Backbone:
């Protein structure tokens, strides 16, 4: 798989996962919601492509304006924490700190991939999700004839859709980061606070597991 494309897509989907909540129109179908978010991001990347490589602040702005509003960040945090999301292991303050640290690391380490965007396009697979509460919409991103499937698992929040997990080329990112965090806890002798402070998610490793 093209390394640059993987990096760009990984940054895109991870950034999509890491943010505060906002509203999506309740009348949207899951495919319409995902298409609106994807098209908004691609349009912005095309418009600002010449400015991105030497402007990290603009990259962060694009993430926050075009991706952040559509994420169930609490659900993603709980997926990555796994059993450590239980009150037995962490309290609300620790979970909030984990969410903050995780988001910043992803934005800092992988936001630069947006600067390398080279007009990738996508097609949407027919929507056949049987899970009305957590439907899955899959896009096939295309680059030089190579197809990379990215599946968005959504959450029905009552009056809006949000993204709660991502699967890239058959790799569940939430699960991969959960395994990485569990390993970090072990390396820190079970000290949750140290694990939260030092956790460095490795997206390249996550999408290379297959």
Residues:
């Amino acid at each position: 798989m093209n390394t640059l494309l993987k990096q760009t897509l990984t940054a895109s989907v991870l950034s999509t996962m890491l943010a505060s909540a906002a509203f999506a129109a309740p009348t949207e179908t899951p495919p319409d919601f995902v298409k609106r978010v994807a098209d908004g991001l691609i349009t912005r990347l095309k418009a600002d492509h010449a400015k991105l490589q030497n402007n990290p602040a603009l990259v962060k702005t694009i993430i926050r304006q075009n991706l952040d509003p559509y994420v169930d960040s609490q659900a993603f945090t709980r997926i990555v924490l796994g059993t450590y999301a239980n009150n037995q292991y962490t309290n609300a303050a620790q979970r909030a700190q984990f969410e903050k640290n995780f988001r910043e690391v992803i934005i800092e380490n992988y936001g630069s991939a947006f600067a390398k965007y080279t007009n990738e396009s996508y097609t949407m697979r027919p929507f056949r999700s049987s899970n009305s509460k957590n439907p899955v919409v899959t896009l096939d991103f295309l680059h030089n004839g190579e197809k990379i499937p990215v599946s968005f698992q959504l959450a029905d929040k009552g009056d809006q859709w949000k993204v709660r997990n991502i699967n890239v080329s058959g790799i569940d990112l939430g699960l991969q980061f959960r395994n990485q965090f569990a390993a970090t806890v072990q390396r820190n002798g079970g000290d949750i606070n140290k694990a939260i402070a030092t956790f460095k998610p490795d997206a390249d490793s996550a999408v290379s597991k297959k």
